[in-house]
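Sample entry (394 residues):
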Amino acid sequence: MGGGSKPEHLLVILPFDAPTAIFDRIRRNHPHIKITFHQLRFAETPWKARSQVPTEIFHDATLLLTLSALPPSPKDCPKLELIHFTSAGTNHIANSPIYTDTTIPLTTSSGIHGPQIAEWVLMTMLTSSHHYSILHNWQNSHFWGNEDKRSLGLLRNLHDKVGQRLGVLGYGSIGRQVGNVAKAMGMDVIAYTARPRTTPESKHDNGFIVPGTGDPKGEIPSVWYSGTSKEDLHHFLAQDIDHLLISVPLTKQTTHLLGEEEFQILSKRNAFISNISRGSIISQPALIAALKAYDSHTTSLHTDKDSFAVAPEADLKAATSIPGLRGAALDVTDPEPLPKDDPLWDAPNCIITPHISGLGSAYVDRCFQVLEVNLERREKGEKLINLVDRGRGY
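Predicted structure, serialized as tokens:
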């Protein structure tokens, strides 16, 4: 990979203002690197820019940091030796000629999103299970709540997370940090990955890790499942999962990975689903149907408003088989933005946020930290971290 101290030209294309303090840090540590910044504002979605980047800007660049802007063709970037993406995945540029027709190394910012996305996952999980909408409505109404027997019954019968099982579908950096926090809450964590992790070394996280977070050695899961077949996936989903985290990359193989069959398996414990990956990994019509099935059956069991006060969820589950999923939290949808008339908006017990779970004040700096690790590695001739395998799609 080497780079030594030969002159380099880093082109940075971002929708933000120039991070001058970060640029100064890079110049101090790598004085042979020239930096050019180009600001590219987004249109209605993060992957579509309002304007095109001038083709000539790529011509002399040896390094590129970008979210989605790429040279139109390989001939436009004859000197380019490394492209670093500020996203965790590269599915949004998988059809670019730079991706399909070159061998330019591509690296991602996988690993930087774990802390803030894990907080989003836990926030929405607890918002749902603790019926926070009830408490919020009480406060807005200046109402103490002592006369709302139906809502008090729900709150008295909520279950904390101790002893519940979190299934992590895709045990990467985000899944590891969610697992880390979930275990601290007393949950059992099981993991699923495409490739088997049968040795201690194979379970290690070899990518970028925010210090003090995640599961660097892969020690948190009580059981580790793997495979690429539908049978393998169904075996994992059948492990009495109370909460499923979807954190797999979007590829051809994972598109609509979860649909009616999978939600039927998860309905054994009426699992709650969190999706922070990509919307098209889920069949949204099937998800809506599963949410409606649970909602309609639980509503019919409570025709008497006061029955919530005396009918814990566990007792109801024992008394009758309730179909469907008890809830979902989605930071990603298909498409994005989600059209105003999309039925997903009105799905019961479904929290939707506009692809913001990874945002935070540390985002840009951590993106550059990954690049800086790889700048050091290039100069030493070492293997890069977060390197994309084009064959696997991530």
